[in-house]
Structures are given as structure tokens and as C-alpha cells.
Amino acid sequence: xxxxxxxxxxxxxxxxxxxTGAGVSAESGIPTFRGAGGIWSQYDPVKVASIxxxxxxPSAYWKVSKERGPAVLxxxxxxxxxxxxxxxxxxxxxxxVTQNTDGLHQDAGNHRVIELxxxxxxxxCLDCGARERRADVQSRLDFEMPxxxxxxxxxxxxxxxxxxxxxxxxxxxxxxxxxxRAADVMLVVGSSLVVYPAAQIPFAAVESGAELxxxxxxxxxxxxxxxxxxxxxxxxxxxxxxxxxxAVQD
Length: 250
Ligand code: NAD
Ligand code: ZN
Known about the structure:
The chain is of the alpha/beta class. It folds into 2 domains: 155 residues, Rossmann fold (3-Layer(aba) Sandwich), CATH 3.40.50; 86 residues, SIR2/SIRT2 'Small Domain' (2-Layer Sandwich), CATH 3.30.1600.10. It is built from 11 helices and 9 strands. Strands 3-2-1-7-8-9 form a 6-stranded parallel beta sheet, sandwiched between helices. Strand 7, helix 10 and strand 8 form a beta-alpha-beta unit. The longest helix is centred in the N-terminal third of the chain and has 17 residues. It is elongated. It starts with a helix and ends with a helix. Zinc ion (ZN) binds next to loops.
């Protein structure tokens, strides 16, 4: 059975790494971008989440955030996040590379989390550089649109996430590729693997000899390279894998 096989691979590994996408947070109530119920069926990403449109009209970004932000900020880690944290604690996972910006891996207890697309928990003023908690800005949106910087009054308060058209954080990308190249098992969870360079990370791992496990609700173009494919919800599958692993060790 594939869950059993994944548990055995992770138990025998010395340098396993997880790569996660929006799917791992779907069961925490945060909609994915693509796939069933994805938010790109409601909004045009280029209009809402690109740096050019943000600079043209920050209020367009913040109007969407006013609707969508509270659920993201209130989200709690689900059993899938908790299982990944347990694997790291037990020494079966070196770290988590994530495309998510929701901070839920850290909330679950993972220590080594590499955020490829930044963090949505903080906001930075593009004029003066002042930083503020996203939650504080979010609470002003009812009476301030777009929200203004508390330090300089500027209107370009940008969440510390990578918007479309922005450069990726180079150190995070380098660290992610280094972990992937050193990995003996790469566990890809909840990602459609169409956003680059994140999508290249598992290829780098496989090229360097890693075995691939894919846990995803739908097929991905990486499946042909995978040793094990588990089609299912990460909130159910990952705890099952973790439970089998601790049973093997007892
Ligand atoms: P994606 O939305 O493109 O793909 C999500 C994948 O997860 C889909 O293939 C879907 O079938 C699968 N999925 C959905 N629910 C699942 C579940 N419960 N268990 C397992 N799989 C499930 O996501 P992506 O590949 O991460 O790329 C999208 C981009 O969106 C990333 O750059 C990320 O920064 C951003 N994003 C982040 C969040 C977040 O922080 N939670 C949410 C939405 C989008
Ligand atoms: Zn400022």
C-alpha cells in the first residue's frame, strides 16, 4: 500500500525534505489558488496580486484582502501541518520548503521552514521601510482604504509576500535547492507544481538521487517521476504516514 511504502521510505531516510503548497492549508480553511474551489476562479491574479497593479492601485489589493484576509489570519494548523511538525521533531524531516505564506507550518511547530514566497503575516511600507503586523493593518481596513503607513503616512503598505512580477528571496531559494540536492526523499504535498522556480525543486532532488513521494488531491505533472503517489487529503494522509512510522519504531 502506498501510505505504508511512504512511511517506510521516510523511516529509512536520513535527509528527507518536504515541499508544500496551498493544498496543505486547504483543510485549515484557506482556499487554494488552483484546483476545485481555487481563488483564481474568483479573481484575476495579474490584476490583484502583481506588483505592477499593486503600485498602480494598492486599494484594489487591500479590498480583496479585506474579504479574504480575516479567514487566513484566523486559520489554525490542521492535522497535516501537525504531522509534518511531528516528523521534524522525530528527526525524520530536515525541513519544510513551502510556497505558502500563511505561517501555519511554524504555528504547528516546524523549526526549519523555508518560505519561498515570503510571509503574509507582516506588512512593509515601500516608502520608509517600516514594518507592521498584517493583523494590525487588517483591522484598519474598515475605515482606511488603502491603509496608510503609521510611520510616514504612505499608501504603499505591501505584505511581505512575493507578488507576481517580483523577485524571489534569493537566500530562501538557494537554501531550498541545497536541501533538495542533499535529500534522499522528497515529500511533495498539496502543490499543483506549476509555479517556478518552486516546481523545479523536486526535479533537482530527483536529479541528485532523491526518491519522490507525492501527496495531492489531484494529479500533478510530477507524478511520472514519483516512487509513490498518494491521491488524497493531506490532513488525512500525513497523520496516517506519521502514525505508521511511529508504529514501525515502537
Ligand atoms: P495551487 O493552488 O496551485 O495547488 C494546490 C494543489 O493542492 C492542487 O493540485 C489541489 O488539487 C491540491 N489540494 C487541494 N486541497 C488539498 C488537500 N486537502 N490535500 C492535498 N492536496 C490538496 O497551490 P501551489 O502549488 O502552492 O501554488 C500556488 C501559489 O499560491 C503559491 O505560490 C503560494 O504562494 C500561493 N498560495 C498560498 C496560500 C497559502 O499560503 N495558504 C494559499 C493560496 C495560494
Ligand atoms: Zn512608511
